[in-house]
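Tutorial handout. Part one gives the primary structure; part two gives the three-dimensional structure as tokens.
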Amino acid sequence: MEEPGLTEALGAAILTGLDGEGGSHDHLAIVHRTAAAEVEIAALMQQSVAAARAAGHSWTQLGAELGMSRQAAQQRFGGRRRDTEEAGDGAEDRWLGPVTAFDEMAELAIAGRQGWRTVGAGMLKHRVRRTPTQWEHKRIVWTGPLPRWEDEGWQVAIRAFPWVYLVRDTGLPAERA
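Part two.
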């Protein structure tokens, strides 16, 4: 299941910025960075499996791709995650969905005009929070640093591999439904 060049790319990312002298501190830095990469890769794996499931792929297909049984794939990646989160500041949250990659941006545009902004995502749904102003939503492919978008006033709302969802406050009062 090894991808050509992937090991080298991951290794290079982990080693970037280290002085390369091979001192004991460098070895500890490599262990620390590799552990952080493992956590990020696990999160990317969970997101990519969720995206594949949302696109209609079966647990049998996913298991075959991962070199495990259907049951093992479903047990490892199919666990129910919490569907509710506290907004923390008394804000009104709700789920927008079901939506697919084909219609979610149109639905988010409508919700954004009514003052809802994306704050999370689940399979075929977005968690949105009510604000007094209108929001723009943008979906881009996660390709690396986002300074270009941030320079234009966009904020990262959520990362749902392979997508990044950006939001931008228009400053206009929210429309009423």
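Part three, for discussion. Strands lie at 93-96, 116-122, 125-130, 133-141, 155-160, 163-173. The longest helix spans residues 24-54.
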